[in-house]
Amino acid sequence: MDDSLIDTLIVGAGPYGLSIAAHARAHGLNVRVIGTPMDFWQRHMPAGMLLKSEPFASNLSSPSPGSSFTDLHPGWPMGRPIPLGSFVSYGQWFAEHAVRGTEDAQVEHVEAADPGFTVTLSTGERVRALNVVIAIGVRQFAHVPDQLRSLPPELATHSVDHHDLSRFADREVTVVGAGQSALETAVLLADAGARPTVVSRKEQLAWNAVPEPDPSWASRALRGPQSGLGRGWRTWLWSEYPATTRALPDRTRQKIVKNTLGPAGSWWLRDRLDHRITLRLGERVVEADENNGRVRFSTVTSRGGIHLCQTDHIIAATGYVPDVDKVTILDPQLRRRLRLRHRSPALSRHFESSVPGLYFAGLAAAASFGPVMRFVHGSSFAAQRIADSLARRRTSTSSGAAIPPKQTDKSVAPQ
């Protein structure tokens, strides 16, 4: 194999990227991980946030023992929410102990080469890789409703844009949405001294049930087993057997992705959503514009009533929608070669796209493998499948079947 051609370059150092790296290196592969460990969680999730997932569903994945969240935090019980800072520290600890080597840089461009790919980094280096794994997380897929897109960023943002909400102290802030992100953002805004209002088209808020650390036999039989996505037989299937989800008809799978774990708040958040937060349920924003440095917007109720409102700022806590066109690090010609499934790459059972050697993990894989790919819990399945596939590709290329004779490539920076 050409010494200048590495096995795999992983784009992203979040839970998926780090987990894939740990499994790939256990196979003896030459892997480079580009990104700052847990950077998205540290800089784009709100300070004071608590994770919705239980400890067993918040693990990064390594084939070596001793790398789970509770290995770093022994005795952390089920039902005790994990603070954002604790999870970030765990991910950084995992990177140091289970991966041992990430690069604090950014991938700027990925283009096809022969063989593999040429990847340009923010440092100016150009790297040749037989395989590239896109594990970029969710930030690029932040969804802002059409009605808010014309507003300037000083007046309208997505929840992913905020780590420090103290900038909104003494200001009126409208949060659009009804899920955990919307409700927790509203609570944290109130904690920071803002005057938040939640606007949601839902008539009622939904809340997750209080977990049962040791449920009775009757409870397990009636409510189903506990899984990374919650309790229930179908939830357990989508959570623990993503390969089954992938085998379903496309229409069925997309219905599962859309409807599993819909907008709802964590049980521990319910009491914190108090008198400090104004709730406007059963309303949807239909129009918004700037008016004297504030946002003027109108909503329509479920009964057809129209309300005219003003606020200092609007935060869209409206989730994430994967779209390959937003993965702008991929060369346009490379993107055009991708076979798509609902604007996401259609993936093989090993997470490989229609472009050989180009893999996708995390939210971009949800259209193929189901809702667990929206959560940290899906990283174990994805990491094992991808690493096994990378190892097989390495074995086949080592025989010389897919690698042409070595040629001088002056575009590759010295290592």
From TrEMBL:
Lineage: superkingdom: Bacteria
The keyword Oxidoreductase is annotated on this UniProt entry: yes
Keyword Acyltransferase: no
Transmembrane segments: none
A Pfam family hit: Pyr_redox_3
InterPro entries: Auxin_biosynth/cation_transpt, FAD/NAD-bd_sf
Keywords: Oxidoreductase
Residue ranges of the region described as Disordered: 393-415
Protein name according to UniProt: Uncharacterized protein
